[in-house]
Amino acid sequence: MVTDQRVAPEVSTMSANDAGRAFPLRRIIANQKVRDTLRALIYFSPALIIFALFTYIPFFRALFLSLNVTDNAGEPARFNGLNYYIRILGLDGRPQYMQSMLLSFQFALMVVPLSIVFGLGLAMLASVRLRFIHAFRTIFTSSISVSLASASVIWVLIFSPATKTTQWIIDLLRINAPSLLGSASTAMAAVALVTIWSGLGFNFIITLAGVQAIPQDLYESASIDGASGWSSFRWITLPLLSPTLLFLAVVNTIGSLQAFTQFQVLFRGEGPEGATNVYTLLNFKEFWYDNRYGFASAMAIVLFVVLLLLTLFQYGVLNRRVHYS
Amino acid sequence: MTITLPLNTTRSRPPAHVEGKGLHRPVWRTALYYALLIGMAILLLFPLLFSFSLAVQGPTVAPKLVPDLTRMDLGIFANVIQQRPIVLRWIFNSFLVSSAVTLGVLVTSSLAAYALSGWNFPGKALLLFFTLGTLMIPFEATLIPNYLTISAWQWKDTFQGLIVPFLASGFGIFLMRQYFLTIPKDLYEAAVVDGASRLRYLRSILLPLSRPALATLAVYTFLSTWNQYYWPLLITNADEMRTTQVGITIFRDFEVQVFNTQMAATLIVLLPTLLLLVVGQRQLIRGLTSGALKG
Lengths: 325, 295
Hints:
The complex is a heterodimer of chains A (325) and B (295).
Chain A: H1 16-21, H2 23-65, E1 68-70, E2 76-79, H3 83-88, H4 96-126, H5 133-141, H6 148-159, H7 167-173, H8 187-212, H9 216-224, H10 229-258, H11 261-267, H12 279-289, H13 293-319
Antiparallel strand pairs in A: 1-2
Helix pairs in contact in A: 2-13, 4-8, 4-10, 5-8, 6-8, 6-11, 8-10, 10-13, 12-13
Chain B: H1 27-55, H2 76-83, H3 86-118, H4 124-136, H5 139-152, H6 159-163, H7 170-181, H8 185-193, H9 198-209, H10 211-226, H11 230-235, H12 244-254, H13 259-279, H14 281-289
Helix pairs in contact in B: 1-13, 2-13, 3-7, 3-10, 4-7, 10-14, 12-13
C-alpha cells in the first residue's frame, strides 16, 4: 500500500501576483476553479458511482449490519452492539472462530514461505542465458492463466484414489485414508500444494522481474573480486531482491488468508473432521447457508482489520530489514 | 487488497544474467541447466498434462497416468461440446462478461485517470484517496451487502449483475494515471493552441500514446474476470447463466465418475486464458509488476 507521492508538474495558468491584484480577476479564478472541479467530477463520475455503489456504501453497510441481528432479507431486525465481535474474538469463552482464524494462519505459514522459495529458485534458474529460455519462462508462468477453480477441479482427480497418482505418498506416510484430501492430517497440506502450484507462475514472474532489475556490473565486479556463485547470490541478489520478496510475502499472506475457492471446490464445502475449516469457509457458511448476514458481516470486518494490521506490520517491521537501492 | 510493488519497472535495461559468463560455460553445466529446466517444466505442467491424459483415455474409471499413445481419443473435445452444449453457453457467458468488464474498466479508468493527472482542482487528493482506498478494502468486506443489493435489484442470474459491480477498478485508474503522468505536458499545451478541447486531447492524443498501458490493463482485467469464481457462484443459479469457472465445478458434480469429459471440458475452458498468456505475456507481466490482485 504505497501512496504515490509524485505530483504532476502542474501548469499554472495565472501567477499568484495576477490573482491578488484585482477583485474581478479573483472571481474569474474562482470560476475557473469551479469549472475545473466540475469537469474533473464529470470525468471521474463513472468510476466514482461504481466505487460508491459497490465498494464504499457496501463497506459501511457491512459495518452497520455487523452491529445488528438481521432478518432473512438482510435488514437489521435488532441492535446487537458489539456482541458479534465479542463472539468472533472468542471473548465469551468459545474460541471456535479464533481457532478457524488460527487455521487460516497455519495455512498461510504452509503456503507463503514455500511459494517464495520456489518462485526464487525458478527465477534463478530461468535467468541463466540459454537458448529457448523464453519458452521455459512462459511455461513457468503458465499457472497464472489457470484459475484456482479449474486448477482445483484437476487436482481433485490427481488426489482421487481412482487415478492412484498420489497413492505412493499415502503408502509412504502410512495414512489411513483413501486420499490425501480425505485425511485430517494431510488435507491442509494437500490444499497448500494446490495453492502453491497455482501461485507459482505469479511468484516466479515477479521474482524474475526483480532479478533482472539488478545491475549486471555488480556481479561483474564481485566476480573480479573472486566471489563465488553462492556469495554473489547471498550478498548481491538476495539483498537487492528483498523489496520484491517483501512484496511477495505481503501479497501471498493476504491471498492465503482470503483463500476460499480451492477449499470450496476441493472439498465441496467441508473437509475431513473440520481440519480445513478456515476462517473464510466459516464466513461463507454463516452467510450463505445460515443467512446470518449481520454475523457474517462482522466476520468479514474482522478479516479486513486483520489483513490491514498484518500489511501495516509487514511493511512497518520488515521494511527496516529491506534494502532499497 | 492490492499493494504496489516497490520495483523500478520503468528502468529498462538489458536483462542481467546471474550466469553472465555464458560463453565460457562448460558443456556439462549447460546440460545440467537444460535437465533442470526440462524437469521443472514437466513438474509445473504436470496438472495440465495429467488432465489431457485423462481426457483422451475414454470413459474409463481407472485411468492410467500416461495414455496409450496409439489409442488416444482426441474426438473427446468435440464430443463434450456436442453432448453438453451448455459448455459453449458458459464460454459465451464468460466471454461476454469479461469483454464488457474489460471495455468498461478501460473507459472508466482512462476518464478518471485523466482527471487525476490532467489539471489541478480542489479535492484532487481526495479523489486519489478514494481510488487507492478501494484497494485496501478486501472483497469479502463488501460481499454480503453487494449480494443483498443485487438480490434487491433482481439482478441475480443477469449479465448486468455479473458485469456492473466490476466496471471500475482502483488498480486500473492508478495504472493509467501513472502512465499519463509520463506523457509531456507540452503536448497538451500544443493541442490547446491548436484549438483542441480536453476531451479531444484525451481521445486523439493521450489515449493513442497510452496504448501499452491500455493493453496491459486489458489483458489483466480480462484474465482476472474470466477466472472469477466467488461472485458468479453467488449470483447465478440458472445453468445457462453460469460462467465457465462455476460451470466447470458444477460439471464435476454431475459427472463424478466420468473423468474424460470432465477433464476435456476443463481444458476447453482453460484454452482462452492460456492463449491470452502466450499472446499477451509482456502486457500481463507489466501489469503484474505494477501491482497485483489475485482472485
